[in-house]
């Protein structure tokens, strides 16, 4: 049990350290918001669970991204409605695809692609990589964060240079 708590604390610390431009309170709120939204979605319909749907919930500054796959359009809509009911959600970007859930191999490929993108961003000193959250699902890269328009454009250019990216979806909040 202590090992689990230590790993959770370590993961939280790493996540918080990599999210610049927001208050500590906002960072902590986001850490709890995504799991709350995920639970609300799971409770809203039996087909919105891990075996029939693959739903990735991400939160940045109260903005929630729903990515992944669900087998029917009505489930996509139900997931969004459930997310909107959660206190603290400012906006929901419903990017769920009406498809069968992705395979474990596809998810591994997406994780590797996200790592390559974050590495490229951190290597480029013109991109505020620590202020940008990158989520990859089925080769589609979602970018969230609090940035200027110029920073968003530079980040997008970096992502375009990474092989394997199918599409880029910018969900930034602009500071200018």
TrEMBL record:
It comes from Geopseudomonas guangdongensis. Residues 29-100, 109-176 form the BON domain. SMART domains: BON. Signal peptide: none annotated. Keywords: Signal. Transmembrane segments: none annotated. InterPro entries: BON_dom, Lipoprotein_DolP, Transpt-assoc_nodulatn_dom_bac. This is Osmotically-inducible protein OsmY, contains BON domain.
């Amino acid at each position: 049990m202590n090992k689990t708590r230590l790993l959770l604390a370590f993961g939280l610390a790493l996540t918080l350290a990599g999210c610049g431009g927001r208050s500590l309170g906002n960072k902590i709120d986001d850490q709890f918001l995504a799991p709350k939204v995920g639970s609300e979605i799971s409770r809203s319909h039996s087909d919105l669970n891990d075996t029939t749907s693959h739903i990735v919930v991400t939160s940045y500054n109260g903005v929630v991204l729903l990515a992944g796959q669900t087998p029917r359009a009505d489930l996509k809509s139900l997931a969004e409605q459930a997310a909107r009911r959660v206190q603290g959600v400012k906006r929901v970007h419903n990017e769920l695809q009406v498809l069968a859930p992705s395979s474990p191999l596809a998810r591994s490929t997406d994780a590797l692609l996200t790592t390559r993108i974050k590495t490229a961003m951190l290597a480029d000193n013109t991109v505020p990589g620590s202020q940008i959250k990158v989520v990859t699902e089925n080769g589609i890269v979602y970018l969230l964060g609090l940035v200027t328009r110029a920073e968003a454009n530079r980040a997008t250019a970096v992502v375009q240079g990474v092989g394997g990216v199918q599409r880029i979806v910018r969900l930034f909040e602009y500071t200018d």
